Amino acid sequence: MADQLRPQDLAVALQLAYQPEERYERLAYVLGLSLSATHRAVQRLRQAGLLLPDKRKVNRRALLEFLRHGARYAFPAVRGPEVRGVPTAWSVPELMAELSSSASSTSVVWPDPRGTVRGESITPLYDGAVGTVQRDERLYRALALVDALRVGQARERQIAGELLEKELPPA
Question: Among 13, 108, 121, 151, who pairs with 80 as Cys (CB 3.0-4.6 Å)?
Answer without folding.
Answer: 121
